[in-house]
Amino acid sequence: MTEILRQKLSDSKAARWTALCIVSITMMFAYFFTDVMSPLEPLLTAALGDENGLGLGWSSSEYGWFSGAYGLMNVYLLLLFFGGIILDKFGIRFTGMASTVLMFLGAAIKWYAVANKFDSTIWVPFGGDVQMQVALAGLGFAIFGVGSEIAGITVSKVIAKWFTGHELALAMGVQVALARVGTAVALAVSLPLSRAWGGVSASVGLGAVCLCIGVVSFIVYNIMDKKEDATATASEDGQEDGFKFSDLSILFTNRGFWYITILCLMFYAGVFPFLKFATKLMIFKYGVSPDLAGLIPAMLPFGTIFLTPFFGGIYDKYGKGATLMIIGSVLLTVVHVIFALPVSSVALAIAVMIVLGIAFGLVPSAMWPSVPKIIPMKLLGTAYAVIFYIQNIGLSMVPMWIGAVNEKNTDAEGVIDYTESMTIFAGFGVVAIIIAYLLLLEDRKKGYGLEKANIQK
Q1: Rounded CA gap, 20 and 205, in Å?
Q2: Which residues are paired to 131 by β-bridges?
Q3: CA atoms of 256 and 250, how far apart (whole Å)
Q4: Which of 145, 183, 204, 277 could bond 301 through an S-S bridge, CB–CB 3.0 to 4.6 Å?
C-alpha cells in the first residue's frame, strides 16, 4: 500500500513540479535581494547628498566590503558547512524554515541600515574602519547570506529528492532560471525604482517584503513534503538517514567531488562578483546612461532564464554534462578577455553579455545535477554545503579584491580603468577550463555517468 501511495505522489509529474515551483519562489526572492543593491553602486558611492539628495557617500572599498560581507559568516564561522550537516541530520523541513527566517531577518537589518543615517565609524574584519551604516548593512547582508546559502542547498536536496530518475537537470535548470528572474529584475529595476521612490531603502525594503512572502511559500512546501514522507520509506528518500561524521571521508577522498567544488568556485567568482560591478562598468567604460546601465548586465540572468532549462533538458536526454561545463568555462574566459580590451563599443558590450549568458546557462545546468551522480543521497546536503562553502570564499573575497583594485585604478576625475579587474576575472575562467577538463577525465576513470543521460527509461 505504501508503494502505491508513493507512486501517486513523488512519481507523479504534477506533484513533483508543484513542489519545485513552490520552493523556487523562495529562491527567486532570495536572488532578487542578493543583487538588489548591485545596480545602486552609483547612488551608494555618490557624495552624501549628491544624486538629487540620494547619495550615501560610500567609498569603492566600502562598497566592495559590503558586497563581500554576504559570505563572511558562511566562510569564517563555518555556518554553511554546519547547515549542510543539519540538513542531512534533521531534514528539509526544519532546515528550510530556519534558513528562510534568517534571510528575512538579515534583510530587515539591511533595510534599517540604509534607511537611516549614522555619523560614526567602526572597525570591521577585512575592511578596516568603515561608516556605521556600511557595517550595519554588511551585518544584515551577512545574516541574509547564511540563510540564503543554506536555503540554496536545501532546495538542491529537495529537487534531488523529487526528481532523481526523472527530469533532474531540467528541474534544477528551471529552479535556476526562476532564481535568475529575481536577479534580472533586481538589476533592471532597482536603480530607477530607488530614484523614483526616494532612495536606496525603497528597493531594499521591497526585497525584504518579498522574502517575507518566501517564508510563507516554504511553509506551504513543508505541508507537501510531510505528505511525501508519509508515502515513502526513509531509506528510499534519504533525508533522515543517520548521518555520521565518519561519512565525511566519502566527500574528502572523492577527487571528482573536489573538481566540481573548485569549478564552482572559479566559475561563479567570474560571474556574481562581476555583476556587482557591471553597472558601473557600463557607465564608465561604455558610456551608457546611468538610468539604462543596469539593463545590459540584466541581459545575463534574463538569458539564463531560457538557456538553463534548455541545456538541462539536453543533459537529461543526451548527457554530456562534463562537456557542457568545459564549453561554458571557455565562453566565460573569452567574455572577460574582451571586457579587458581597450574597446568601448556599446554594441560589443551587449554582444559579449549575451555570450556570458550562454556560459551562465551551460555550466550550472550541468554542474548541479552532476553532484548526485557522485555523492549518495544521505550526504547530499553536506556535499552541497561544502561546495557552497567554498563558493562563498569567492563571493566574499573577490568583491573586496575587485573593489580595492578599482579604487587603485581610479583617476583624479573619478574614472575607473577596468583592465586589471577584468583580467582577474578572465584568470578565473582559465582555471575553470582546466578543472572542467580534469573532471571529464575523472568521469572516464570512475564511471560517474556525467556524460550519460539523467532520465532513466
Answers
A1: 27
A2: 121
A3: 11
A4: 183
Amino acid identity of residue 194, one-letter, is S
| Torsion sign (Cα): 407, 413, 419, 425 | positive
> How many Å apart are CA 314 and CA 244, to the nearest integer?
36
* Alpha-carbon span 425 to 433, nearest angstrom: 13
Measured CA to CA, the distance from residue 204 to residue 186 in angstroms comes to 10
pLDDT for 107 beyond 70: yes
DSSP 163-186: HTTSSHHHHHHHHHHHHHHHHHHH
113-127 residue pLDDT tens: 988 888 888 998 888
Contact partners, residue 300, CB within 8 Å, separation at least 6: 184, 271, 275, 353, 356, 357, 360
- Report the alpha-carbon distance of residue 274 to residue 290 in Å, rounded: 17
Averaged over 413-430, what is the pLDDT?
90
Using DSSP's 3-state secondary structure scheme, residue 121 falls into strand
Question: Who contacts 411 (Cβ-Cβ below 8 Å, separation ≥6)?
Answer: 417
Given a contact cutoff of 8 angstroms between Cβ atoms, the answer to whether 114 and 204 are in contact is yes
* φ and ψ of 121, to 5 deg: -120, 165
Q: Is 315:321 a contact under the CB 8 Å cutoff?
A: yes
- Report the Cα 251 to chain-centroid distance in Å: 22
Q: How many residues are recorded in the chain?
A: 457
pLDDT, tens digit, 9 for 90 and up, residues 135-164: 999 999 999 999 999 999 999 999 998 887
Question: Residue 130: in which H helix or E strand, if any?
Answer: strand 128-131
Question: Looking at residues 295-321, what average pLDDT do you find?
Answer: 85
Residue 215 DSSP one-character state: H
C-alpha cell at 326: 568545459
User: 91 — phi, psi (to 5°)?
Assistant: 95, 175
- Residue 319 C-alpha cell reads as 548527457
Torsion region of 26: left, alpha or beta (phi above 0 gives left; psi -120 to 50 gives alpha): alpha
Q: What burial letters (b/e) apply to 19-35, b meaning 16+ CB within 10 Å?
A: bbebbbbbbbbbbbbbb
The yes-or-no verdict on residue 197 having pLDDT over 90 is no
Report the candidate in 49, 70, 46, 68 with the shortest Cα–Cα distance to residue 58: 46
Find the DSSP H helices in 270-413: 272-284, 290-293, 295-318, 321-340, 346-374, 380-408
Q: Which long-range contacts (CB under 8 A, 24 or more apart) does 440-445 make?
A: 440/322, 440/323, 440/326, 442/255, 442/256, 442/259, 443/256, 443/322
HSE at residue 162, side-chain half, CA atoms within 13 A, is 30
Q: Per the structure block, which three cell numbers stand in for 381?
A: 546536503
